[in-house]
Amino acid sequence: MQTEFIRNFSIIAHIDHGKTTLSDRLLNMTGTISDREMQAQMLDSMDLERERGITIKAHPVTMYYQGKDGQKYELNLIDTPGHVDFSYEVSRSMSACEGALLIIDAAQGVEAQTVANLHLAMKQNLFIIPVINKIDLPHANVEQVLNQLEDILAIPREDAIAASAKKGIGISEILEAIVSRVPPPKATGAPSAQALLFDSYYDTYRGVVTHVRVCNGTLKAGMSVKLLHSGKNVEIKEVGSFNPKPYPRKELTAGETGYFTANIKSPLDIKMGDTLTDAKKPSPPLPGFQEIHPMVYSGIYPINTADYEHLKANLAKLQLNDSAFVFQQETSVALGFGFRCGFLGLLHLEIIQERLRREFEMDIIATYPSVVYRLQMTDGTTQEVDNPAHLPAINHIEVIEEPMVKAFIICPNEYIGDMMALVSEKRGLLVHTETLDDARVMLTCRIPLNEILIDFHDRIKSLTRGYGSMDYEYDDYDASDMVKLDMLVNSESVDAFSCIVHRSKAEYRGRALAAKLSEVIPRQQFQVAIQAAIGGKIVARETVRALRKDVTAKCYGGDITRKRKLLEKQKEGKKRMKSVGSVNIPQEAFVQVLKS
């Protein structure tokens, strides 16, 4: 199709503001999917997405729309996730678009992730079409949302389209706005074909299937192309688009979005953001998107050590489908061979673990999540540590620096005190307070990343009865009084339970871990001490009582000295056993502690 009749756009919004419902309605209105095939959450193909009601992966789809001017247009839509942990998916999708539909819930108004996604879109110079969704709700307040649109996002209220994706209100206006307002793609004018690789997945029968946005020239089957990052030459086997299932086409021309398959068998040959060009007459690389750095690290180990190679292959396939996820090999004394994996956040970590269990049927165990600390050493060098087991001796460290984030919390006015208390409990600092409207405020604060890992988002939701929302961005390192907390079982350190914590919270954390371990470690023939230690100082202790055989059961009455003699003999045996005995912690105990 000619470039002037092609429109590439994505849908961006805060989580649960109706992106997927709107994309379903667009597919239905343009006749891409018949009423018979239609089902809710059409583009959410994963079971996990349907269960949780969230979008995890960006989904491309090509639609054909007959405009009011009688012209037929090709609309390439990419539905994107709304959760902060998947913002990399959003930025990759935007690199293949010229416009974006910004969806705002008429009942909830502008939320933290709405602002973050808008900034991402503006950075990519996308044309924004604001859509106020869910206007059919009884408590929808369109006027207030229009005011927020102007005051918070600086978008004129006249640009907004009122709609209800569920009821089908305003859908034709949205389609017309896409056609009239979103600029058509422009060819780069390079000497040969150029295409941007923005996503991919692994197919058992066809190998690596790569999503591309063609920026110049044409891609078709039989063509010899070059991947500029790896320098590999491949032959295209098939090109096509999605509707939303993949279907083959003769060719993809400049401005179009689709997929290609080639003789690429290894996931490692594909790099997201790479440029595909003609092998005989290569064009220069396109500007890609920035490399993403993981924020959270956790160790993933197979429960059955024989599954190690199988886990390695499956992690490579997952990385292909989600390039924000990284992994490298590591070993643990307690857990054996495994992988150190990097994630963008805790939900990202949870989703990857769940996908490994469901899609690849892997039995895995994950260690406690940690962040990357920067160490200034006494010899003037700098080191980065993401695993407590690799922390050098304290006498070699001058300063430990921890990563900080700038968090934006939007909450109703009456919960501002609770939010400030939560921020200070998490060692955060309130930087700025901004009144958004007569009902809500936005708090800007700096918080250590380590503190918001586990339960921060849940605490915000519970304190504000579900009305609070948050978004965060990375904000450099700060020097902090961090210490390594070791867990000792029978005076031996267990590396899987070690962690780096702030000194003020080390004792509380040590008590909690020791109490949990005392519940899950089976009783031995001798007493087992469980201790939490910082360096040489013990800060918490629990004891697992010994199993005791009734040695006096065979004594029927008689002199008490006979019983005493047997008990003393047992006591001596227990003491000797404790000096030579070792405690084997079962795998189930690791699973239970790390889950808690």
Task: Describe the secondary structure blueprint for this structure.
Elements: E1 6-13, H1 19-29, H2 47-52, E2 59-66, E3 72-79, H3 87-94, E4 99-105, H4 112-123, E5 127-133, H5 142-151, E6 161-162, H6 171-181, E7 194-203, E8 207-216, E9 218-220, E10 224-227, E11 232-242, E12 246-249, E13 251-253, E14 257-262, E15 275-278, E16 296-302, H7 308-321, E17 326-332, E18 336-343, H8 346-359, E19 364-366, E20 373-377, E21 382-385, E22 397-412, H9 416-425, E23 429-435, E24 440-448, H10 449-452, H11 456-463, E25 469-480, E26 482-489, E27 492-493, E28 499-502, H12 503-520, E29 528-534, E30 537-544, H13 560-580, H14 587-595
Parallel strand pairs: 1-3, 1-4, 4-5, 5-6
Antiparallel strand pairs: 2-3, 7-8, 7-15, 8-14, 9-13, 10-11, 10-15, 11-12, 11-14, 16-18, 16-19, 17-18, 20-21, 20-22, 22-24, 22-25, 23-24, 26-27, 26-28, 26-29, 29-30
Helix pairs in contact: 12-14
Tell me the CATH topology of the largest domain: Rossmann fold
Count of strand segments: 30
Largest sheet: 6 strands, mixed
Radius of gyration over C-alpha positions, nearest whole angstrom: 29 Å
CATH architecture of the largest domain: 3-Layer(aba) Sandwich
CATH superfamily of the largest domain: P-loop containing nucleotide triphosphate hydrolases
Helicity, as a percent range:
25-40%
How are the strands of the biggest sheet laid out side by side? Answer: 2-3-1-4-5-6
Given as residue ranges, the uncertain stretches (5+ residues, pLDDT < 50) are: 41-45
Given this structure, which CATH class of the largest domain is correct? Alpha Beta
* Beta-strand content: 25-35%
Give the helix tally.
14
Shape: globular
Structural class: alpha+beta
Termini separation: 55 Å
* Total of domains: 5
Rounded mean pLDDT score: 78
